[in-house]
Design a protein that fits this description.
The complex is a heterodimer of chains A (262) and B (209). Chain A is mainly α. Helix content of chain A is 76%, strand content 0%. Chain A is built from 13 helices and no strands. The radius of gyration of chain A is 26 Å and the shape is elongated. In chain B, the strands form two sheets. In chain B, strands 2, 5, 6, 7 and 8 form a five-stranded antiparallel β-sheet that branches. In chain B, strands 1-4-3 form a three-stranded antiparallel β-sheet, with no helix packed on it. The longest helix of chain B is centred in the first third of the chain and has 26 residues. The N and C termini of chain B lie far apart (117 Å). Classes of the chains: A mainly alpha (262), B alpha+beta (209).
């Protein structure tokens, strides 16, 4: 009789220990395990890379996310893939939100906004892409255009810029739009910015080094060079097919400045 | 002419001489010892002798070695095994959910050959206890990107190597407050109500953002 009661106590203790260890997470996981499994399977079927899926699931464990939001994130990644978008920017946005302590609900809203921005730009490129961007936009160039919307370029401004821009390779279009977003944050006048960028596009002069144009402009303004002088020198450099380093020399930067420059 | 037995060979003669000399020394020593005065032994002599004869303490390693080399019998009842199994299961769960996910992910494996540029990030935050750098270059993970305060404790600094490119970043103060770099000329909305700073990394040496 005594042996039976001892056994009963041991069994109860065992289940208590297991309940404490696995308790809330285990109960929740059981409740929505199927939802996560289905979302994972759907994302995998849509072509979301295994490494991205693993990262999301690992983050959900690490941050003890509600399974509802895990499914939500996985659905966003699936949507990105079905819209032919790269999933990495969305994964980065999830990581960024979690690192900053943003509630998962707000992260989900930000992801929806990002998907919407991508759809807008995709539509814009589809309407003007064949002419302006010489075909379908590569993922990295598309991301640059989308990111410009977070950096101060409105949808209307981007639409107008794309309308007025001459046909160029997509990489040059991306450099121009990125510079548009960054130069708008300097004290350069809008007409000077437009003049520089349109010259670069018209002459197809935006080689990769020109992606740092905004940084040069900030450095030049810090040296006291006027916006007009900067625009003049930039247009001249583009017309003579020179690179950004030569523009910096023209603006009076020394080799020491160049070491710190672009 | 003498016979060989009447006249011993030189080595044999020397040996006999040494034997005689040794006996005389022993006799001399015996006489000296007999002339020594009688003295009582010290009172703790017996105790000290017994103490020196006591068995020496075996080291823990030696005892472990002996235990491992001695056969033992282990009897386990299934009922008594359950609590131990529960503890093991709890440890496995703890390791799986807490420790394993914290291991840093392998990053930038493809970037090993990419040229990297040294960049110094600084933030003035006098009252802060911790400041970390998070950004698109470290997948927004503060682990390993903790900034260090200067001697005065006002300025926080971190120098890292970045491949050339465009990055967004922010500072995480005391693990919760997101602060954009006040010295960066370029910012963007992060979609969560905060601002990220933007850095364009190029050239040989960024020195300072």
């Amino acid at each position: 009789m005594r042996g039976k009661s001892e056994a009963l106590v041991i069994i109860i203790v065992f289940f208590l220990v297991m309940a404490i260890c696995l308790g809330p997470a285990g109960a929740k996981a059981q409740g929505t395990e199927q939802g996560i499994a289905e979302a994972t399977q759907a994302a995998r079927a849509a072509g979301v890379p295994e490494v991205v899926l693993n990262r999301v699931l690992a983050l959900s464990l690490e941050r003890r996310l509600s399974p509802q939001y895990v499914s939500n994130f996985l659905t966003t990644l699936r949507l990105a893939r079905t819209n032919d978008l790269a999933v990495e920017p969305f994964l980065l946005k999830i990581e960024e939100g979690l690192a900053k302590g943003i509630p998962p609900k707000s992260i989900a809203i930000a992801l929806e906004q990002k998907i919407d921005d991508y759809r807008f730009v995709q539509d814009l490129v589809r309407r003007q892409g064949p002419v302006k961007a010489s075909g379908a936009l590569p993922a990295e160039d598309l991301t640059v255009l989308v990111d410009s919307l977070s950096a101060g370029v409105s949808r209307q401004e981007l639409e107008r810029f794309m309308e007025t821009a001459p046909p160029v390779p997509s990489a040059m279009l991306a450099i121009a739009v990125d510079n548009l977003a960054l130069l708008k944050q300097t004290d350069l006048k809008a007409d000077l910015i437009n003049r520089m960028l349109m010259t670069g596009l018209r002459l197809k002069g935006f080689t990769p080094s020109w992606r740092y144009l905004a940084k040069v402009v900030v450095a030049a303004r810090a040296k006291g060079i006027s916006g007009e002088q900067i625009a003049e020198a930039t247009v001249a450099a583009l017309e003579e097919k020179r690179d950004l380093r030569e523009l910096m020399y023209a603006l009076g930067f020394t080799s020491r400045d160049l070491r710190r420059g672009p | 002419m003498k016979k060989p037995e009447d006249c011993p060979s030189p080595p044999r003669r020397a040996k006999n001489e040494r034997k005689t000399q040794g006996s005389e020394e022993l006799l001399l020593l015996e006489r000296m010892l007999r002339r020594l005065p009688d003295r009582e032994p010290p009172p703790d002599l017996v105790g000290r002798i017994l103490e020196s004869l006591a068995p020496k303490r075996i080291s823990a390693w030696r005892r472990l070695y002996l235990w491992l080399h001695t056969p033992h019998t282990l009897s386990i009842s299934p009922m008594k095994l359950i609590p131990a199994a529960a503890v093991v299961a709890a440890l496995v769960v703890a390791v799986g959910t807490v420790i394993a996910p914290r291991q840093p992910a392998l990053r930038g494996a493809k970037q090993e050959t990419v040229k990297r540029v040294p960049v110094v990030f600084t933030l003035e935050s006098p009252g802060a206890h911790t400041v970390s750098l998070i950004g698109s270059f470290n997948e927004w993970s503060p682990a390993g990107f903790e900034m260090r305060p200067t001697a005065e404790g006002r300025l926080w600094m971190l120098k890292i190597q970045l491949p050339e490119g465009r990055y967004r970043y922010a500072f995480l103060v005391d693990g919760r407050l997101v602060v954009a770099d006040p010295r960066s000329p370029f910012v963007e909305s992060d979609g969560f109500g905060n601002r990220n700073s933007i850095i364009l990394v190029g050239g040989d040496d960024e020195r300072e953002v």
